[in-house]
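Fill in residues.
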């Protein structure tokens, strides 16, 4: 084939390809409706199809509200799907050993709160507390939140409140603490943090010797065998100022009768320059 014929065939192929591409592009474009078609009302079948398409949206809108139980169940499913089941099982409250908490309300001298507070009006302003609560040192959270709707329920003062607005009994106040202190809550649930109720809740009440142990108190030993009852977070931490403050240690015990203690203070030795000066004078 001559060079002229080869060039001619090349142009024929290019023209055929261009024609094919133009035809495909024209077929993919939607044909604009005519003015007469736009003026006509939609057919009955099209209206039914539009209603059928809107029905799922209305159903979704009806499902937008959830009961508290449905919301908790949905959140639990999301948390389990977010990490492996083995990790989720280790971190869940349900997998913790069974326990009960020490009651709290019978230790509160100002409970129920509604004995003084009126639920119909609660002053939510951030301010210095006076009168009954002026002795509270409030530094929990470093100024990130205030009493109401963070811990205390401003709509029903006899209850605490969760971050989702659920009522929490004062005897289960650990549920409020665990919302922010998740790692501490896990340690507390599985026994790595906190204390068990039973023998002596206050360290200062523990007898130092067997002779100080009263006969009536001997049944308080060995309570680890009974039901697992743990102290609430607020039994050790002040909920308004939870940091454990340093305390003065107890003095060391004295010597036993008939035993004297020698001084353990090392004798002072002369400094090196003082010793050298003394040696030079000796020579």
């Amino acid at each position: 084939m001559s060079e002229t014929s080869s060039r001619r065939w090349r142009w024929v192929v290019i023209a055929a390809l261009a024609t094919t591409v133009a035809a495909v592009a024209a077929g993919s474009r939607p044909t604009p409706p005519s003015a007469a078609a736009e003026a006509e009302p939609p057919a009955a079948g099209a209206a039914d199809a539009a209603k059928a398409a809107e029905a799922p949206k209305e159903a979704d809108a009806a499902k937008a509200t959830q009961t508290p139980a449905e919301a908790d169940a949905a959140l639990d499913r999301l948390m389990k799907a977010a990490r492996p089941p083995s990790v989720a099982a280790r971190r869940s409250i349900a997998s913790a050993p069974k326990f009960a908490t020490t009651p709290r309300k019978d230790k509160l001298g100002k409970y129920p709160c509604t004995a003084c507070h009126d639920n119909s009006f609660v002053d939510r302003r951030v301010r210095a507390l006076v009168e009954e609560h002026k002795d509270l040192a409030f530094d929990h959270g470093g100024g990130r939140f205030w009493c109401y709707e963070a811990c205390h329920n401003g709509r029903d003062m006899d209850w605490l409140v969760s971050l989702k607005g659920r009522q929490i009994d004062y005897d289960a106040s650990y549920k409020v603490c665990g919302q922010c202190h998740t790692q501490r809550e896990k340690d507390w649930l599985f026994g790595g943090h906190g204390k068990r109720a039973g023998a002596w809740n206050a360290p200062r009440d523990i007898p130092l010797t067997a002779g100080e142990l009263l006969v009536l108190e001997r049944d308080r030993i060995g309570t680890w065998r009974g039901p697992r009852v743990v102290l609430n977070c607020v039994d050790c931490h002040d909920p308004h100022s939870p940091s454990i403050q340093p305390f003065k240690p107890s003095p060391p015990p004295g010597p036993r009768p008939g035993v004297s203690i020698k001084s353990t203070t090392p004798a002072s030795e002369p400094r090196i320059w003082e010793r050298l000066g003394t040696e030079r004078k000796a020579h």
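The chain has a mean pLDDT of 74.
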